[in-house]
TrEMBL record:
Residues 416-430 have a biased composition (Low complexity). This is methionine--tRNA ligase. Coiled coil: none annotated. Pfam families: Anticodon_3, tRNA-synt_1g. Residues 232-383 form the Methionyl-tRNA synthetase anticodon-binding domain. One of its GO terms (molecular function) is methionine-tRNA ligase activity. Residues 9-178 form the Methionyl/Leucyl tRNA synthetase domain. Keywords: Aminoacyl-tRNA synthetase, ATP-binding, Ligase, Nucleotide-binding, Protein biosynthesis. It comes from the Eukaryota.
Length: 430
């Protein structure tokens, strides 16, 4: 029968845990509950907190706020700067958020312009849902408790637990490929349908056609497109693109990253539909002026896509900009103040006529079935399991090499023996 305080042995050291009396410091969160609840209710709306962030915070509030221990009896950590607690360290989730401020102060003496300037600074934070209450409740309580005018978190973006092939991701155990649910077959399908057939297809069709020699293309020079706004198909596209860009900016401002990415990919889909509807390959001979409008508008969309996708696929954006032959950083900032969003409604104006593009190349490649099997096997199990497999594979490889060496030596010895016998026979005849 199980008895109170009866423990098994510790997994690491294999010793039996002991109960000891010790003093600790606690954060008196309950005394700040009224102001804290007010802050959370107001900021969660103004900052468009993700639903899981609100739920995680409200769960602590619903249980009733309790004093939280902020010290630990450990050797590793930040020492408590108090004589009575010099043998203790701070609890990591009390100490770590304070590090945001102290690290900034190490970087610049003007740190207060960031951390004590709530009227002019907006603080965004990104984390897994396990860590939400430490930021929305514990750290916020610390800042409120000082009575000083700190910059407090406005917006928080929170990820769910990550699942890998019906199991759970574990960084410590080395399981997974660091979406909420990851499977290799899903990656394969999305790579084919969304990246290859949609985004990659659109960008490559546009740039490859412009890069074709004069007579069948534009010799890599972006064509002029006068009166593009009077082209009905192009005008309809531009209106859709402008709306999508507005939606993208709104989503990103609210840290709705998945929605932002989906909106960006919608522009690529619109671009593919635009190309098909225009039948540009026929227009090139039958209506060159309209074809030029379609191509210059489309290359503008390519530029917009490179900008919108930079937060999600930075290396792909860099490659697209390279293929467009634009040096340096992507200059389209998508700022209302600069009129960039309005400019997105006139995509034919984004890339100047006469601009010479670079060399088009496919941006993505297909993930084959055998590769899916290989990667699933490679990242299956724990890191320790994979090391054992790797060691076994190395041992097998070494054994095979030794076997080959022995066979090779045996063949050499046999050949040498045969040669010697042959010479002896010849000598006997002589």
């Amino acid at each position: 029968m199980w008895k109170p305080f009866e423990f098994d042995r510790a997994e690491v050291c294999r010793n039996t845990p002991q109960i000891r009396k010790t003093d600790h410091l606690f954060l008196d969160i309950p005394s700040l509950e009224e102001e804290l609840v007010k802050h959370i209710d107001t900021t969660s709306v103004a900052g468009s907190w993700s639903q899981n962030a609100i739920q995680a915070s409200k769960a602590w509030l619903k249980e009733g706020l309790k004093p939280r221990c902020i010290t630990r009896d450990l050797k590793w950590g930040v020492p408590v700067p108090h004589e009575d607690y010099k043998d203790k360290v701070f609890y990591v989730w009390f100490d770590a958020p304070i590090g945001y401020i102290s690290i900034t102060s190490c970087y610049t003496s003007d740190w207060e312009q960031w951390w004590k300037n709530p009227d002019n600074v907006e603080l965004y934070q990104f984390m897994g849902k396990d860590n939400v209450p430490f930021h929305t409740i514990m750290f916020r309580s610390c800042l409120i408790g000082t009575g000083e005018n700190w910059t407090k978190m406005k917006t928080i973006s929170v990820t769910e637990y990550l699942n890998y092939e019906a199991g759970k991701f574990s960084k410590s155990k080395g399981v997974g490929v660091f979406d909420t649910e990851f499977t290799w077959t899903d990656l394969q399908a999305k790579l084919k349908s969304e990246l290859l057939a949609n985004l990659g297809n659109f960008i490559n069709r546009v740039l490859s056609f412009i890069a074709k020699p004069s007579g069948i293309g534009y010799g890599s020079n972006v064509p002029d497109a006068p009166n593009a706004e009077s082209h009905s198909l192009t005008k309809a596209l531009a209106e859709k693109v402008g709306n999508h860009v507005e939606q993208y900016v709104e989503a990103m401002e609210k840290v709705k990253l998945k929605q932002g990415l989906k909106t960006a990919m919608s522009i690529s889909s619109e671009g593919n539909s635009y190309l098909q509807a225009s039948q540009f390959w026929k227009l090139y001979k039958e209506d060159p002026a309209s074809c030029a409008v379609v191509m210059r508008t489309s290359v503008g969309l390519v530029y917009i896509l490179a900008t919108l996708l930079e937060p999600f696929m930075p290396s792909i954006s860099v490659e697209v900009v390279k293929q467009l032959n634009f040096p340096g950083e992507i200059p389209l900032s998508l700022s209302d103040e600069n009129g960039d969003i309005d400019r997105a409604r006139r995509p034919w104006e984004i890339v100047p006529s006469g601009h010479k593009i670079g060399i088009p190349k496919p941006l993505f490649k297909e993930l084959k079935d055998e590769e899916v099997i290989f990667f699933r096997e490679k990242f299956a199990g724990s890191q320790a399991d994979r090391k054992v497999k790797a060691d076994e594979a190395d041992e097998t490889k070494v054994a095979d090499q030794l076997k080959k060496m022995k066979l090779s030596d045996a063949r050499k010895q046999k050949a040498s023996k045969s040669a010697s016998q042959g010479k002896s026979g010849e000598a006997a005849k002589l």
